[in-house]
Design a protein that fits this description.
Blueprint: H1 23-37, H2 39-56, E1 59-62, E2 66-72, E3 75-80, E4 83-86, E5 93-99, E6 104-108, E7 110-112, E8 119-121, H3 123-126, E9 127-129, E10 135-137, E11 140-144, H4 149-154, H5 159-177, H6 180-184
Antiparallel strand pairs: 1-4, 2-3, 2-5, 6-11, 7-8, 9-10
């Protein structure tokens, strides 16, 4: 049994089986067009397309209640208000968008599941020693809103962790100075 492919295996007798030009004809047409236009011209068109895509990557959107911070080579150079904005693309400029209207919160002594809203105690943070050497379970919520995005982003490394840690230190200090009766009221 002969399994060799023939030109007429796909519905033709000596003609193309799928009804279109062959791959050789397509390559030949491309080579003819390149010869007619010139290789340098096509290269310039491709370079212009790549530069255009790179320039278009600088478009970004700052939503309502947000503020954009533009960094040029790592140094803050501008803050942008909500709307459609443009910056020089990476690696020259980068952008950070900070949500200013959102109320952020730090939790000490418990954790809230963002999906269910249920709280569970975090005993490593919650258990504290009072001034009269009793153990108390204390929890604290700190709610805050970011006013200045540049200070939030660049003034302190890991600003949310710094706030949580300093609030926990302040709570432990107050609990440690007072008696259990004063702390419970």
């Amino acid at each position: 049994m002969d399994m060799a492919w023939r030109d007429d295996d796909f519905g033709g007798s000596g003609e193309q089986g799928y009804g279109g030009p062959s791959m050789d004809e397509i390559v030949l047409k491309i080579q003819q067009k390149m010869a007619r236009w010139g290789g340098k011209r096509i290269l310039l068109i491709l370079i212009a397309i790549v530069i255009g895509i790179w320039l278009a990557s600088g478009i970004y959107i700052v939503g309502p209640g947000e503020m954009g911070v533009i960094r040029q080579f790592g140094k803050m150079v501008d803050q942008t208000s909500p709307g459609l904005r443009y910056r020089i693309p990476w690696p020259i400029q980068t952008r950070d968008v900070v949500h200013l209207a959102r109320v952020r919160r730090a939790e000490i002594g418990l954790r809230t599941d963002p999906y269910t809203g249920k709280s569970r105690p975090e005993l490593k943070e919650a258990l504290m020693l009072t001034g009269d050497e009793n153990i108390v379970d204390a929890q604290l919520f700190v709610q805050y809103v970011v006013k200045d995005p540049s200070q939030f982003l660049f003034r302190v490394r890991e600003s949310e962790l710094a706030l949580k840690t300093s609030a926990e230190v302040a709570l432990r200090s107050v609990v440690g100075r007072n008696t259990i009766d004063y702390t419970m009221t």
